[in-house]
């Protein structure tokens, strides 16, 4: 039941043809798993892809077996070894990838002010990064120049920087050029210049944690 996670290899792969390597049923319904999987399952602070198999809408979940399982919303008929057509929604994939990459970028934008990201949530409309102080000299939340930080990020986005991802054993690592590597299993844009409208919505401090809410879009 080997499955290839194509979504980790190419964010921009929106369709593929593949055979089924496993099928079954559980509390969520009937499911299949494709050998070449382009669907991102929810996890790591990023929502699941929206997609279809043979033009039938599917829900995407990480199965207990570790496979990425697809749950058709209506009967999906096929025979053994049949090649099925899989598609993900480009709009949602690119928006989610823009938000996830922007979250990593925001992490490094706060470094000079003494804060380091420790967790992220990259869902549309509710994206945020949580930070802990790097040391005792971290700038207080009410002293953070949020608009200046926003302007600095916008300038760097216009300049661009390549985003790379690779594996070291079972660990996947991502890197925005001229920053530091981060362990991450999400989808990312190829360059930060594809991020548009990156804005800081709010900054709150509670129980030693700084939470910055933000928004971003994909630049066509």
Description:
The relative contact order is 0.16. The model has no long low-confidence stretch (mean pLDDT 96). With 220 residues, the chain is an alpha+beta fold. Helix content is 17%, strand content 41%. InterPro entries: Alanyl-tRNA_Editing_Enzymes, Thr/Ala-tRNA-synth_IIc_edit, Transl_B-barrel_sf. This is Threonyl/alanyl tRNA synthetase SAD domain-containing protein.
Keywords, separated by commas or semicolons:
2 domains, Threonyl-tRNA Synthetase, Chain A, domain 2, 220 residues, 3 helices, five-stranded antiparallel sheet, Elongation Factor Tu (Ef-tu), domain 3, 16 strands, single chain, alpha+beta
The spatial strand order of the largest sheet comes to 2-9-6-7-8
Largest β sheet strand count, sense and barrel closure: 5 strands, antiparallel
Mean pLDDT: 96
CATH superfamily of the largest domain: Threonyl-trna Synthetase, Chain A, domain 2
| Helical amount | 10-25%
InterPro entries: Alanyl-tRNA_Editing_Enzymes (IPR051335), Thr/Ala-tRNA-synth_IIc_edit (IPR018163), Transl_B-barrel_sf (IPR009000)
Protein name: Threonyl/alanyl tRNA synthetase SAD domain-containing protein
């Amino acid at each position: 039941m080997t499955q290839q996670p194509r979504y980790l290899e190419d964010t921009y792969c929106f369709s593929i043809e593949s055979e089924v390597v496993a099928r079954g049923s559980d509390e969520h319904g009937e499911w299949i798993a494709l050998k070449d999987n382009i669907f991102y399952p929810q996890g790591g602070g990023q929502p699941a892809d929206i997609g279809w198999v043979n033009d039938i809408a599917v829900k995407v979940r990480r199965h207990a077996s570790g496979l990425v399982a697809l749950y058709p919303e209506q009967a999906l008929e096929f025979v053994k070894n049949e090649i099925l057509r899989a598609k993900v929604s480009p709009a949602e994939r690119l928006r989610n990838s823009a938000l996830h990459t922007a979250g990593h970028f925001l992490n490094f934008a706060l470094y000079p002010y003494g804060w380091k990201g420790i967790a992220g949530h990259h869902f549309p409309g509710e994206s945020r990064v949580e930070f802990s102080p790097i040391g005792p000299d971290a700038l207080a939340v009410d002293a953070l120049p949020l608009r200046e930080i926003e302007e600095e990020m916008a300038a760097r986005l216009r300049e661009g920087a390549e985003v790379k991802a690779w594996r070291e054993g079972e660990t996947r690592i991502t890197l925005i050029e001229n920053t530091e590597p981060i362990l991450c299993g999400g989808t990312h844009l190829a360059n930060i210049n594809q991020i548009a409208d990156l804005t800081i919505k709010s900054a709150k401090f509670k129980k030693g944690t700084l939470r910055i809410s933000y928004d971003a879009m994909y630049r066509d």
